Amino acid sequence: MSATVSATPATVIVAIDGPSGTGKSSTSKAVAAQLGLRYLDTGAQYRAMTWWMLTHGVDVADPAEVAAAADTPRIDSGTDPEAPTISADGADASGPIRTPEVTAAVSAVSAVPEVRARITGLQRSIAASAEGGIVVEGRDIGSTVLPDADLKIFLTAAPEARAARRGGELKSAEGGRPVDLAATRRDLAERDKADSSRKTSPLRKADDAVEVDTTELTLEQVVECVVTLVEKAAQAAKAAAGKPAAKAGQV
Ligand SMILES: Nc1ncnc2c1ncn2[C@@H]1O[C@H](COP(=O)(O)OP(=O)(O)O)[C@@H](O)[C@H]1O
Ligand SMILES: Nc1ccn([C@@H]2O[C@H](COP(=O)(O)OP(=O)(O)O)[C@@H](O)[C@H]2O)c(=O)n1
């Protein structure tokens, strides 16, 4: 009987960043599902930490209190793109993390360096153990969390398009009641400002990220574009892995 040695599965790590409403979550989930990759929503982790703090009496306006509590809750993420999960200390957080209270507080909590260090560590260990590869979406994945990702995408969209998309979601959440689009747009702009101007690991495009403006594209078009980019990146990573190591002085 001949012994067969199975090759280590090819892994591909994809980082998708960008501001709110540019399509990160929908695109990342669809791309991961299509390509058989895992999926991590890092915004959900920051939201779960924020929810836990709000429900445990932490004053989220006080960075010292937030820092002191940052190591306490257990945050668990399920990475199946068809059914992602998020919990804090074992409690399902998927509903409560989408409330306006959490959305209003999350930028302040996620600006605290101790929170970022804790969550960044979780993200790296989830990515390292994702067999076959993973799509990780957030604000600082390409720039800070996974700087060696095989592919980095930065999604953008015009403010009106982003507000209209978020407004659509809020309207369904409100049972079809109309939402104030101007207020939604203001909230998005405020969160962008806070996330881009914080000192530790701000929202920014990594120098080697591919920027995709989704304003005029359907979700299906964005997914198709990203799938093509992932396939190319995976091929390039495979080819690079097969190359003999360069000797000193060679390129
Ligand atoms: N290219 C697109 N065109 C129209 N709607 C989109 C597009 N991409 C995403 N959406 C919708 O916009 C909303 C916000 O998308 P989401 O993926 O949650 O964005 P993000 O994760 O960047 O905040 C969702 O309702 C989603 O279905
Ligand atoms: N990698 C990340 C992801 C999210 N965040 C923070 O978490 C918040 C919520 O992220 P999210 O992805 O759920 O936001 P939405 O775009 O879904 O509204 C952001 O506004 C950031 O303050 C972060 O700081 N770094």
Automatic annotation (TrEMBL):
Record: residues binding ATP: G18, P19, S20, G21, T22, G23, K24, S25, S26
User: What is any one of the record's Gene Ontology cellular component terms?
Assistant: cytoplasm
Q: Name one GO biological process term.
A: pyrimidine nucleotide metabolic process
Which keywords does this Swiss-Prot/TrEMBL entry list? ATP-binding, Cytoplasm, Kinase, Nucleotide-binding, Transferase
Which Enzyme Commission numbers does its entry carry? 2.7.4.25
Q: Its Gene Ontology molecular function terms?
A: ATP binding; dCMP kinase activity
Q: Where in the cell is it found?
A: Cytoplasm
- Which InterPro entries is this protein grouped with? Cytidylate_kin, Cytidylate_kinase_dom, P-loop_NTPase
Cytidylate kinase domain sequence ranges:
14-231
Catalyzed chemical reaction(s): CMP + ATP = CDP + ADP; dCMP + ATP = dCDP + ADP
Q: Which NCBIfam families does the entry link to?
A: cmk
Record family assignment: Belongs to the cytidylate kinase family. Type 1 subfamily.
Name of the molecule in the record: Cytidylate kinase
Q: Which organism is it from?
A: Streptomyces boncukensis
- Its gene name is cmk
